[in-house]
## 1
Amino acid sequence: MFGPGSIVGILGGGQLGKMLAVAASRLGLEVHIYAPEPDAIARSVAKFNTVAAYDDAASLTAFAKVCDVVTYEFENVPAQTAAIAGENSALRPGALALEVAQDRLTEKTFLRDKAGVPVIGFKDVKSVFDLKRAGKEFGWPIILKTRRFGYDGKGQVKVDSEAGAQAAFDSLSGDLIAEAFAPFAREVSIVAARGLSGDFAAYPLIENLHRNHILHTSTCPTHSDKGVAKDMAKSIMDALDYVGVMATEFFQMDDGSLIINEIAPRVHNSGHLTQNAGCTDQFEQHIRAICGRPLGGAVPAHITQMTNLIGDDVAGLPALEADPAANIHLYGKGAPRPGRKMGHVNRIIKD
Ligand code: AMP
């Protein structure tokens, strides 16, 4: 169990790392940021900093040795980086969560076969022939995705019919996966934590609205799921022997049933609303879990809504500052760019 004075290492220095660092600091812990960017925004709230590449074995070893526990704020931490961190410190969540979450084919296979949870129909695609076969089996349209490094709708294309298969296949590079199209009514997520002894706490279901493939608004609690989503998240986290906060993203159908889209082995944008929901927020929850401490309460006191401030949205800051209901969180990123997450606003919409 790590407490005040212990050092939490974080791989990555973006806004998630920054908010994790603030939460750790609130618990009396010290933070060490490891990232290649000298100006990574999380550095401004960390006592210790390493500027080095993720494949710099010597720097990674030195970093991990001085940290009591190492965590990460992004899922594309290279396997070798995770291995070195795990050999020289406690890596939480562990390397298996990264391996599973980094590759959509490995992920969906693990979720279906090891965690026993429902995932959308999928097929490994090595050729246009495979893609056409997926279309015949699942019916068109098909979603063709890169297995790795896809985010915010990047690295994926909707294929409406067999006639479009070749062009779609040619438009993406790297290993590919085909998914059946989910005719969902809404997109929802569960943010949950699992502690060192397997203890579990999940926030209620969160409803997510996207704009231009980027998360725009999250609201929690939303439509009841009769606890099914929490049970699925628990099955996944148990199967991964997971420690920390993890998000599970679902497609919810008209009849309320849920199919898993993907998991994120980290704190998640849809969980930012917990900062003002009147319970332990997801950042503190993650720090508590990885430090082997008891999990905090995950029952919100209010219905809370988060809206991302993306790109030029920050121009609306004066109006937000004049709004007493707006809880503003800015990341300190400097110049806004289209699609760049600059901050978010949490609002209690019902007590
Ligand atoms: P992803 O990068 O997998 O999270 O996909 C980004 C977005 O594309 C999702 O939030 C959905 O809106 C949409 N999408 C992804 N996969 C599917 C699918 N199999 N069926 C329908 N929509 C999808």
## 2
Amino acid sequence: MGERVLIFDTTLRDGEQSPGISLDPLEKLEIAEQLAKLGVDYIEAGFPVASQGDFDAVQAIARRVEGPGICALSRTHLADVDRCWESIKDAGRSRIHVFISTSPSHLEHMLRMDQAQVLKEVRQGVERARSYTGDVEFSPQDATRTPMDFLFEVLQAAVDSGASTLNVPDTVGYGIPWDFGQIIEEVRRQVHGEYVISCHCHNDLGLATANSLAAVERGARQIECCINGIGERAGNASLEEVVMALRIRPDIFGGLETGVRTEELARTSRLVARLTGYPVQYNKAVVGKNAFAHESGIHQHGVLAERSTYEVIDAASVGQVGSQIVLGKHSGRHAFSSTLKDMGIEISGDALNLAFARFKELADRKVQIEAADLEAIVAEEKGGHAGERFELLGMSVSASTGQNATASVEVADNGVKAAAVADGNGMVDALGKALSQATGVRADLTGFTVASVTGGVDALGDVVVTLEADGRKVSGRGISTDIVEASARAYLNGLNRLSRVREKFSNSETP
Ligand code: KIV
Ligand code: ZN
């Protein structure tokens, strides 16, 4: 066994801070359960003081998800730390992550504090956290733009007050690998005591993975990262990239190991993409659709003769091999649910009945049903009925060249039926207007993409829409073999998110 590098996943905290992402507690729980299957060491489940919704989600994860340590983020304010502990105290292993900004720009423009006040805050926040648990992480926000002497002083204060993990966040993605590696080495030299050193890299210059690896090379033993590299602005270091780099180059990393079950990477990536509405770019390393596709004849020839000629990763080792499920229109409920169980998907009750009905509908229209199809319909039914306010009961659309399209829709609003008819500039526009009328929720459609879940003419269409209202941005996702119906589902999913998001941001102050 090599030495361990801890994988601290912050998809549900920093990742969820990506513009337009708003996960409800059940969606967060579903992702957390998959992260536990993936084998991450810590799940940063949220920032409990941000809203009641965030608190509930963190608490549900702490109570239900087994395996990884469950962490939540807190400012140094004592009341924040108390609330943070309240949300995670029921987990098998709980960690409080305390942070405060330390760079001159943040001190002047955001905190309006001097260095002495920041040091006092660090001591009081970490000591309070330590009074609850021995597992306390401390982060000096914007560390890479903090004068080094002050950074060491702050980190020393945190260890002396009881922090067991010192994180070095490159909050604005300013680091360059050899320079960031040097900071990690200097921290280890200058800050005395027992602690694990961690890195948290943002991707503003496209260097988050490289910076994280440079940190590991200089002694970091925890990497903070997100599935698909999502996160504030350009995102965080991508979990799948850092894990695979450590795995593929033991010669460079001296046999350092993670506990990640890499065969679960592709599935985790698909789940996060689906629930967040953030599609994965085709050429994304490790989990992109094209990560193992070879276009040129020479490359194809090479790979057919011997895979390693043009591939450093075996697709199967990251779960990127399309498994075909032997299910068809004659399959019964039992076969359906036991196939899902074999795939590691837990679903029961109403959500199972609804997913089975969707599966039957799909089997009538599609010859080959693949794992990705099943994951997509199950995710939609699980998510779609997690206390959603609006449900699509029916729709029809007509359009002809040179004429406005007309859509009529019927929806249930908390079980009460409502219908509307509207004209629009094209089918999606007409549907959007009719749905807005029927639900009473106005929003502008500012983004629309359609992709297929798998290949073939009968593939499921996967539509993602971006809706904006009151300065807020949300995404909505819908799937169907009929892309017009997928569009209506996506639009309604977005309207449901908009009504949820209003509650969520009622008391928001995200880091
Ligand atoms: O980027 C950052 O500085 C953070 C901290 C809260 C760790 O996300
Ligand atoms: Zn961050």
## 3
Amino acid sequence: MNLCIIGSGYVGLVSGACFAEVGHNVICVDNDQRKVDALQAGKIPIYEPGLEEIVHRNVAAKRLHFTNSIETGVDGSEVIFIAVPTPPQPDGSVDLSYIEKVAREIAGVLKKNQYRVIVDKSTVPVKTGEKVTETIKRYNRHGADFDVVSNPEFLREGCAVADLMAPDRIVIGGNSDRALALMKKVYEPFNAPILVTDINSAELIKHAANSFLALKISYINAVSAICEASGADVEKVADGIGMDRRIGRNFLNAGLGYGGSCFPKDIAAFIAISDELGVPFTLLKEVQRINRDQKERFLKSMRDALWVLRDKKIAVWGLTFKPDTDDVRCSVAIDIVNDLVKEGSSVTAYDPKGMEKAREFKLISDSVKLVNSPLEAIDGAEALIIATEWKEFANVDLDEVKSRMATPLIFDGRNLFDPATMHEFGFIYKGIGRRQTTKAEPALA
Ligand code: UGA
């Protein structure tokens, strides 16, 4: 099929590449000419495992193309996906102006005898599809035939290609049989379960899914605080809860809280739209509060241990909001670095992929020293913070770590290490909600 994706950001680019990989002919549109030029030259603006190979392979096979012209994209494609940003506004509601603009632009180039399916893939509040339909109708000067469909994307950064190629489910929201038949054809090669709904339900599924996952994280983080106060171990508690198949172990990893460009924004947006609809979703405000508190509790435990943070030499491992990505947007790791700088600590940080973007977008103060390896970061450090659970950190030589640090104090914000092992190596080790144990303790053997 001939497909057009408008917006070559995370979702747009990965979707476009994967659609081409299964055999569709895809044209990706972006209004940033520099990005289009870079992509045409084979330069991928984001780090995502497997993406570069897929893009190169499909560009070479002439199944994947890049342009800045919406008209070219719409003219040559039966199905047009909108994958433009939906950023948050200060009150938490979503700025839908990019979606509105693209809807107008698509309408302006629709032709009379061409039927087009216009698909919203960006994360949007419920009822956006209705607005997109109205807008296209209003600007559709030639009376072209079209349908609007909602098709939310569930990929995770860091494993976006794998998620797209083998999704748990495809959600398609629409009310036209013709459009739904074309959408099923788009997804046929993926061999995944397809759930067909109305447009509003499809839109709501996306916000409800992300909010539920964030709720799971805040739930276990609240439990982690109780574990610390009572001497229980949150990893064991999560295992015990998660073995119940109705609950499941996924997304029950206690830590510094959720970040990134999706959860914080989507939860705020779900709260805003529920307020607007007159049915306030107050439970989600508690989810947000727990998430904020988690970082504060972590900083407090550092102050408790170090007494004074001013002038302390602190190493931070990890800047990205999660491993296997170079994305540093809304990263709790970055917040912690900035909080420490504000308190007068001298911070040295290392991240396998995120340092360039942290500097480029000026997310961290110039006073933060960025170095080229985890070991370099800890030279002479009085404390080490693990803020992102990169595999590289789990494999370090712990004797070497201890010998390089001035004082062997580790605050593990992602529970990467086992407390008993760390104590054996002679560290003063503090995880999140972890029981302070020794290997000798039989219950935890
Ligand atoms: C999330 C969803 O998982 C995707 O399904 C969705 O498509 C995407 O948002 C989106 O809306 O575009 P993503 O933000 O890429 O994906 O990353 P996640 O793996 O969900 O992690 C989000 C945050 O939660 C990270 O900061 C991570 O460290 C944290 N997290 C995750 C925990 O603290 N504990 C966990 O057990 C799991």
